[in-house]
Structure formats: C-alpha cells, structure tokens
Design brief:
This protein has three helices and no strands. It is mostly helical and 66 residues long.
C-alpha cells in the first residue's frame, strides 16, 4: 500500500482499490537481498521509493506530453 499511496501522491489522484483475498499466485511476503550486488559491483541503490516514483511520473508526463 505504501507504493500505491506514493503513486497516488505523485499523480495527484486517488486509485480505485478493490481488496480481494490472496490469489493462488500471490506472494504474501518478499524480502530483497542485494548483498551480492554490493559485493560484486560495489553498487548500493540509494533512491527511495517515493523519490523514484516522483521522478518516473515527472519523466513519463514530460516524455508523453501528458
């Protein structure tokens, strides 16, 4: 929901949400492990989800003249 809320804020719109029970293909929990990325490429992402969504929405609107 944090992702959806960030998207709503960046777009200035409220999403129409329909909450359903978990579907057979849904994954209830995830956790990212970027330790190999850091070790192998000395790269550790620093962009927050909020910043990334805001930048993407800005780019998308400019690119598509939206």
């Amino acid at each position: 929901m944090d992702y959806v809320e960030s998207l709503e804020k960046a777009l200035g719109k409220t999403a129409k949400k329909e909450f359903l029970p978990l579907q057979p293909s849904d994954i209830p929990d995830t956790s990212a492990d970027i330790s190999e990325l850091v070790v192998n490429f000395q790269y550790k992402p620093s962009t927050t989800i909020n910043e990334g969504i805001h930048r993407f929405v800005s780019w998308y609107r400019e690119y598509n003249k939206y």
